[in-house]
C-alpha cells in the first residue's frame, strides 16, 4: 500500500509540475517570440542559481575548468540556465523560429553550414549516422535535414515527467519526423532503420550506466556505445552536427565532414576508441561555447 501511495503521489507531483509548466508556456505563447525568449532568459538567470541542479552544474564546471575563477564558473552556469530557458520556450515557437530557406536571398534567423554534406547524405543510397550534443537548440538539426529532403530518425531520451515527455514528444514529432525513445528495444529499431538504408540521429553526451570507460575533459566517465556499435555493425559513415546560438537571437546549424573512424586489426570499427572520439568532438564543441551546454547532467558519475 505504501508503494502504491508513493507512486500515486509521484504521479500527482508530475501532473502538477506539468500543469504549471504548460500554464507558463501558454502565457509566453501570447507574446512575440523574441519578447518571450528574452523574458524566459532573464527569469532563468535569477532562478537557476537557487536550484539544486545549479550546485551540480558548478561542481561539474570546477572539474572541467580547474583554472577558472568562481566568478567565471558562475557566469557560465548562468549562461547555461539562459540557454535552457530559451530551449524550453523555443518549443512553443519552433514553427516561427526555424525560417531557413535554401532559396532565400537574405539570411533569416537560421543559417546552415555544410549544405553540400546534407545533399551528399540525401543522395547516397546507404545508411548514415549523425550525432550531436545538448548544445544550443539541437532540436533544429532534424528540421534542417527535412528541409533538404533528408529523412532522419532521431533517438531521444524522454524527460522523467511523463506529462512533459508527452508534450515534448508531440511537439517534436510534428516538426521533426521519426523519433525513437531511448528505452528497451531502441537499439533494435535503429538497427532496422540502418539495415534498410535509412539515416539515424543521436545525442551522445550523456552518462550511460552500462557504458564503456572513456574520458571527458580529462576525467573518467561512462559513454553509451550504441552509436559506435551501430557504426561497427553496418560500417556506415558517421557525421558530427551541432547547433550554436549566435548574437541577436540567431542560430547556426553545422554539419561537418564524416569522421575517420578508428578500427581494430581486422578493419572493424573499434567501439571503445570511437566512443572516446565522440567525446573528444563534443568536448571541443563545449570548450568553444561552454554556456550553451547542459552542465547540470551528472556526466562524470561512474555508476
UniProtKB/TrEMBL annotation:
It comes from the Bacteria. Keywords: Acyltransferase, Cell inner membrane, Cell membrane, Membrane, Transferase. GO terms for biological process: glycolipid biosynthetic process. GO terms for cellular component: plasma membrane. GO terms for molecular function: acyltransferase activity. Pfam families: Lip_A_acyltrans (PF03279). This is Lipid A biosynthesis lauroyl acyltransferase. Its main location: membrane. InterPro entries: LipA_acyltrans (IPR004960).
Amino acid at each position: 500500500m505504501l508503494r502504491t501511495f508513493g507512486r500515486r503521489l509521484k504521479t500527482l507531483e508530475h501532473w502538477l509540475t506539468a500543469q504549471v509548466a504548460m500554464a507558463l508556456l501558454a502565457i509566453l505563447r501570447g507574446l512575440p517570440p523574441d519578447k518571450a525568449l528574452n523574458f524566459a532568459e532573464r527569469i532563468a538567470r535569477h532562478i537557476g542559481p537557487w536550484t539544486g541542479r545549479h550546485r551540480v552544474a558548478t561542481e561539474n564546471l570546477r572539474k572541467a575548468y580547474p583554472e577558472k575563477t568562481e566568478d567565471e564558473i558562475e557566469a557560465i552556469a548562468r549562461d547555461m540556465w539562459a540557454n535552457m530557458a530559451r530551449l524550453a520556450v523555443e518549443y512553443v515557437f519552433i514553427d516561427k523560429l526555424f525560417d531557413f530557406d535554401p532559396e532565400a536571398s537574405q539570411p533569416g534567423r537560421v543559417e546552415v553550414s555544410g549544405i553540400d554534406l546534407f545533399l551528399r547524405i540525401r543522395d547516397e543510397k546507404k545508411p548514415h549516422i549523425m550525432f550531436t550534443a545538448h548544445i544550443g537548440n539541437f532540436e533544429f538539426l532534424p528540421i534542417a535535414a527535412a528541409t533538404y529532403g533528408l529523412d532522419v530518425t532521431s533517438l531521444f531520451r524522454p524527460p522523467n515527467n511523463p506529462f512533459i515527455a508527452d508534450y515534448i514528444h508531440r511537439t517534436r514529432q510534428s516538426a521533426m519526423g521519426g523519433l525513437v525513445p531511448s528505452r528497451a528495444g531502441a537499439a533494435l529499431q535503429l538497427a532496422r532503420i540502418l539495415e534498410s538504408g535509412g539515416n539515424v540521429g543521436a545525442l551522445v553526451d550523456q552518462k550511460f550506466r552500462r557504458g564503456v570507460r572513456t574520458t571527458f575533459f580529462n576525467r573518467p566517465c561512462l559513454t553509451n556505445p550504441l552509436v559506435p556499435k551501430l557504426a561497427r555493425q553496418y560500417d556506415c559513415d558517421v557525421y558530427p552536427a551541432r547547433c550554436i546560438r549566435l548574437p541577436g537571437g540567431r542560430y547556426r546549424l553545422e554539419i561537418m565532414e564524416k569522421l575517420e573512424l578508428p578500427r581494430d586489426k581486422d578493419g572493424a570499427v573499434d567501439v571503445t576508441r570511437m566512443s572516446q572520439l565522440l567525446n573528444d568532438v563534443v568536448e571541443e564543441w563545449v570548450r568553444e561555447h561552454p554556456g550553451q551546454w547542459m552542465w547540470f547532467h551528472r556526466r562524470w558519475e561512474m555508476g
